[in-house]
């Protein structure tokens, strides 16, 4: 058994025992109360699921196993001359709770390179998808199609016992993560470069190889990919893509089916598609204003015009965060270092100067600050990746790391089928009426 798999087994074995003790001592304690507003309001903030790999604080933002993004940029090992952390290290951390050594990261990089192969059937399917299909849809279809290779599904059919679920889930997740950059790069080169594909280079780390297969070999872009793949990987369990993977996986669907479900959630404009929307919105603004260097006042007017149309300003707001997203700040930091004079980066920064006050002024937006999607497109475009409708695929490749690490934990902990309770409006009315009766009686 490889070191990562053995370490994961050790960690979840201990965790399983600890959870058993915790549940027997405190299982009946109330952890949350739910209001009718929350039932109608997208279940915001209800504490009702387990997610081990990361945790989100409204003010501070994301922590992966207790580490913030600035901390991880310092602490995660770098190889191949990287100046940004490698997502291999983050995956190790999310799966085991331990910071890996440089050798661990090298070994994992190699392991994924070994597993990175697409079958003739995978290629055939990708080739037959029309390039007019949105890249995110192509990506999701390809993940679904690879399901025929799921070891978990195969073993389940053969009568696998519960105690072995984790093992085959781990194998599927490792294979899937290894293959995703190949699939994504294949979709990219097919859709935008007339199928001029670039072979993987197994000597490169996971993100650098992805950049290489996209056709972007600049060392700075490889570093951007390492950072991008790290910061988009996980955002606790309640967000739509993570929660979908967790939910689908709880039916004992394998990693391929579960991840495809999550990718379809990520493809929505209120979630991962916002990175595409941000750039489209900026281009519409440039066209509307007739300048590529708009002033803050011009941007401010355009933002107000957008809001007056009744549409959201993409890249701003969040269901949980209540301060600027540290993932936005990490990308701004990267841009300050590498491309501060880029006109598109300048626009993103000017938008940041004006939007929060305007949104705040509306009096209804709970978080007027930028989220992760507000910055990513400008950076990608700076390095020549200007195809906006591919951006969510990049997000998806990264998001797979967190949701699949958690899926391994889901099966290791033998978490049950998810099945919350729904209510009809009639039942809510009855509930409210019964409360009124009780209040009247008690007065
Ligand atoms: C992320 C998002 C879906 C969160 O939704 P939420 O939790 O319902 O947000 P709020 O509670 O603050 O929403 C309250 C109101 O403010 C509006 N609002 C929130 N963000 C807004 C934005 N960026 N621009 C304009 N209005 C916004 C909502 O549409 C809602 O209006 P309504 O009451 O008329 O329906 C929302 O902020 C949004 O649509 N942002 C733009 C898309 C985006 O960047 N998505 C990526 C998220 S990582």
Structure report:
The chain has 20 helices and three strands. It is mainly alpha-helical and 443 residues long. Strand 2 (61-64) and strand 3 (67-68) form a beta hairpin. Helix 9 (165-192) runs antiparallel to helix 19 (391-412) and helix 11 (219-231) crosses helix 19 (391-412). The model has no long low-confidence stretch (mean pLDDT 97). Coenzyme A binds at residues 270-271, 274, 307, 312-319, 359, 364-367, 371-373.
Mean pLDDT: 97
Query: What series of H and E elements makes up the topology?
Result: HHEEEHHHHHHHHHHHHHHHHHH
Termini Cα gap = 67 Å
Poorly predicted segments? none
Task: Please report the first level of CATH classification, the CATH class of one domain.
Answer: Mainly Alpha
Biggest sheet character: 3 strands, antiparallel
Task: List all distinct small molecules, including ions and cofactors, that are bound in this structure.
Answer: coenzyme A
Secondary structure: helix percent: 55-70%
CATH architecture of one domain: Orthogonal Bundle
Q: Strands of the largest sheet, in order across it?
A: 1-2-3
* Strand coverage percent: under 5%
Computed over alpha carbons, the radius of gyration is: 23 Å
Mind telling me the CATH superfamily name of one domain? Cytochrome P450-Terp, domain 2
Counting DSSP H or I runs of 4 or more residues, the number of helices is 20
- What is the approximate shape? globular
């Amino acid at each position: 058994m490889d070191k990562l798999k053995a370490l994961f087994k050790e960690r979840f074995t201990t965790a399983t025992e600890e959870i058993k003790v915790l549940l027997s001592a405190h299982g009946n304690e109330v952890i949350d109360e739910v209001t009718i507003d929350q039932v109608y309001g997208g279940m915001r903030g209800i504490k009702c699921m387990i997610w081990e790999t990361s945790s989100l604080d409204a003010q501070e933002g994301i922590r992966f196993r207790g580490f913030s993004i600035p901390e991880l940029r310092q602490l995660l090992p770098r190889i191949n001359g990287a100046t940004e952390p490698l997502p291999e290290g983050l995956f190790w951390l999310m799966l085991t709770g331990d910071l890996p050594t440089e050798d661990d990261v090298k070994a994992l990089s190699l392991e994924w390179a070994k597993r990175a192969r697409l079958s003739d059937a995978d290629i055939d399917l990708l080739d037959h998808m029309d390039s007019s299909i949105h890249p995110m849809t192509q990506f999701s279809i390809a993940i679904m199609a690879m399901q025929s290779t799921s070891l978990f599904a195969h073993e389940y059919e053969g009568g696998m016992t519960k105690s072995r679920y984790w093992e085959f889930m781990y194998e599927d997740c490792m294979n899937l993560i290894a293959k995703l950059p190949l699939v994504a790069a294949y979709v990219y080169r097919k859709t935008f470069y007339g199928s001029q594909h670039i072979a993987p280079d197994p000597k490169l780390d996971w993100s650098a190889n992805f950049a290489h297969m996209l056709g972007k070999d600049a060392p700075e872009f490889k570093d951007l990919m390492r950072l991008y793949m790290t910061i988009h990987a996980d955002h606790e369990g309640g967000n739509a893509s993570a929660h979908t993977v967790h939910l689908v996986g709880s039916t004992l669907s394998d990693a391929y089916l579960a991840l495809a479900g999550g990718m379809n959630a990520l493809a929505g404009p209120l979630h991962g598609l916002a990175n595409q929307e941000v750039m489209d919105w900026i281009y519409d603004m440039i066209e509307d204003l007739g300048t590529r260097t708009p002033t803050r006042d011009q941007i401010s007017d355009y933002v107000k015009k957008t809001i007056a149309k009744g549409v959201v300003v993409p890249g701003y707001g969040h269901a949980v965060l209540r301060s600027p997203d540290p993932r936005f700040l990490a990308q701004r930091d990267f841009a300050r270092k590498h491309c501060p004079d880029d006109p598109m980066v300048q626009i993103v920064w000017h938008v940041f100067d004006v939007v929060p006050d305007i949104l705040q002024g509306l009096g209804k937006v709970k978080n007027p600050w930028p989220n992760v999607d507000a910055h990513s497109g400008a950076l990608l475009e700076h390095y020549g990746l200007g195809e906006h409708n591919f951006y969510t695929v990049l997000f998806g490749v990264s998001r797979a790391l967190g949701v699949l690490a958690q899926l391994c934990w889901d099966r290791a902990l033998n978490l049950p089928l998810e099945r919350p309770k729904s209510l009809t409006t009639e039942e809510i009315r009855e509930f409210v009426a019964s409360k009124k009766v009780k209040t009247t009686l008690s007065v």
